Amino acid sequence: MKNITKTYSIYYQVLHFTFQITLVLSLITTFNAKAEEAIFFKPGNLIAQTTKKKFDTGQNPKEEITKAETLLFLDNHLSEIKSSTQFSYNIQSVGKLAKEASDIINVLLEYDKKMISANAELASGKSVKYLSIVKYPQNNPIILYFLERDILEMQRLTKGQPNYFRKRIRTALAEGPRIKKINRMFKGKNISALTFTIKPYATDPLRNSPGRAKYKKYSKKTYTFVLSREVPGHLLEITTNIPSKNKKKILLKETVSFSNLKKM
Questions:
Q1: CB distance 109 to 90 below 8 Å
Q2: Phi then psi for 30, rounded to 5 degrees?
Q3: 66, 92, 140, 200: which could join 172 in a potential S-S bond, CB 3.0 to 4.6 Å?
Q4: For the chain, where are the alpha helices, taking DSSP H only?
Q5: Which DSSP category does 188 fall into?
Q6: Which distant-in-sequence residues (6+ apart) come within 8 Å of 128 by Cβ?
């Protein structure tokens, strides 16, 4: 039994790491627009790739790193954490397609002179694929946890391949969505925040292809991110929404939002 548990743990780490790599691949582009091969450069040894498309995807990623990508994946969200800490996030699902109503994701950050690792679990005790150990995190792991959860949810709804959803999301971020400054209430205080929305599937030419009715049904799905430096870990909330033709009804709306912080 221990060997089986260990095998699953390794599988989940590989799955999570794969998503991290596919996201990082979209963050950097080549210095030379005519280059045809991936290159490496410093700082950070991030992987660069061209944005030349072999076929029409309906998306137009920018060559430079976008503000949205920086906010989510390059900013150091954990720089002010100087001891082992637990972040708790409420996760809620509502609508006709909702599989589960609510839960809490507890993210444990292990700190020993530097950030060592992040691990997470559901307060309900349920075991899920999208929570795994992240070594030496800098950006908030809850972002990748939630996006990986969303990818598995889209796979459940459409029977599609996870890599399709990963690519659409990372490329939508690379298109450079408009960033807005807003004010939000947090713990009884009015704080400044940044927000942006992406629609990864809205322009996919294949959504109208025969046999892809489910993709078209969910193609208007939106992802809205809200971040603030006044919130521990910077992530205030992420909301995904699949609208219904009947505006009075909700197909699926899911939100992960910061709840509290506890020193360990």
A1: no
A2: -70, 150
A3: 200
A4: 2-27, 67-69, 141-158, 162-174, 213-217
A5: T
A6: 122, 149
DSSP string, 43-86: TTTEEEB----SS--S----SSPPHHHIIIIIS-TTTT--S-EE
Cα(87)–Cα(38) distance, integer angstroms: 36
| Domain locations in the chain as residue ranges | 2-263
pLDDT computed for residue 129 by the predictor: 85
Q: Return d(Cα 213, Cα 21) in angstroms, integer.
A: 30
Q: What is the pLDDT of residue 5?
A: 43
Structure tokens at 37: 């091969």
Residue 194, strand partner residues: 181, 227
Phi, psi of 246 (to 5 degrees): -90, 105
Confidence of residue 99 (pLDDT cuts 50, 70, 90): confident
Residues forming a β-bridge with 104 = 90
3-state secondary structure of 205: helix
Can you give the C-alpha Rg of the chain in angstroms? 19
Note the Cα 27 to chain centre separation in Å: 14
**Stated pTM of the model:** 0.79
Question: Interior CA angle at 211 toward 209 and 216, to 5°?
Answer: 60
